[in-house]
Amino acid sequence: MKQMIKGSSWLSTLMSAMVNREESKGLCVGCLCANAINGLCSLCQADLPINRWHCRCCALPLAFSGDNHLCGDCLKSPPPFDRSFIPWRYQYPIDNMISRYKYSSQHKFARPLIAGFSHHLESVFLNRSDEKPTLLIPSPMLPARRRARGFNQARDIAERLGETLGIPVDTGVVRRVRKVQAQRGLSREARLANLQGVFEVCTDVPERVAIVDDVVTTGATMRALSETLRNAGAKDIQVWALARTPG
Asked: Regarding beta strands 174-176 and 83-85, do their DSSP bridges make them parallel or antiparallel, or are they unpaired?
C-alpha cells in the first residue's frame, strides 16, 4: 500500500489552482457572495472539513497525525483495494452539499467538490503517472434506483473526473445482480454480509483501476466491489470518493 494524501499540503495546491484558473465564476452556493469559483468563495472553501489525518489505506478519519497509520479495521482485515483518495470528511457542510446533489439533483452543490477533487488528483499524478489508473469504474446502481433518482451520482462524478484527468470511464465493467437491504443503519459486519455476491464483472478488467463513489461510510461496498474486481484480474485498485464518514 502506498502513501495517499499527505497532511493538508494538498489544500494549498488545490486552492491555488482554483483561484488561478478562470473557471465558472458566479454566486457561491454557500453564502451567495459574487466571488465564487466553481461554486464556492474562498471563505466557504476554507470551511470545508479536510480529511487531514486518516488511515493511509481506507482514508478513515483519525484523531492523530502521521503518514503511515492504518486504522484498526485495515490492520485486522486488510481490504482488497490498495489505497484511497478521499479529500473531505462527511460532516457539515459537506454532508448537506452532497445530500442536496444526490437526493434533490441540485448539481451546483457537487460542482465545487468535484472541481476541487479533480485539481488535487491532477497534482497527485503529475509526478506519479505510473500510479494513475487506466480506467474509472463508477459504483454501480440498480436500474430501478437510477430511474427513481434520475441519475447515478457515482457515474456523474467519474465522468467529470475522467474528463479532467484524461481517464476513460466504463459503466459496463461491473453490475449489481440483485437488490439488497438498504445499507443505511446497518453495522459494518451486517453491510458486508448484505453485499455478498451482489456484484458481477461483465467484461475484461484492466490491471489498474479506480472505483468512484460520492461517500464511503463503513467501506463495505468498496470491499465487496474491490474483491469482485480483484478476482477478475485487477492488480492495483484505488478508491476515489468526495467524502468519508468519521466512523
From this structure: unpaired
- How many structural domains is the chain composed of? 1
What is the number of alpha carbons within 13 Å of residue 88 lying toward its C-beta?
27
Report the distance separating Cα 239 and Cα 85, nearest Å: 6
pLDDT digit string, tens, across residues 40-52: 998 999 999 999 9
Q: How far apart are CA 208 and CA 19, in angstroms?
A: 32
First to last CA, the chain: 21
Q: Pick from 14, 17, 38: which is nearest to 26 by CA? A: 38
CA within 13 Å, CB half, 149:
20
Residue 46: which CATH number? 3.40.50
Kindly report whether the global pTM for this prediction surpasses the value 0.90. no
Task: Look at the block and give the residue holding cell 485498485.
Answer: 237
CB contact at 8 A, 137 and 158: yes
Residue 4 maps to a domain? no
**CA distances, 222 to each of 90, 93, 120, 174, 179 (Å):** 16, 24, 21, 13, 17
1 located within any domain: no
DSSP 110: T
pLDDT in tens, 87-100: 999 999 999 999 99
Cα–Cα distance, 246 to 244 (Å, whole number): 6
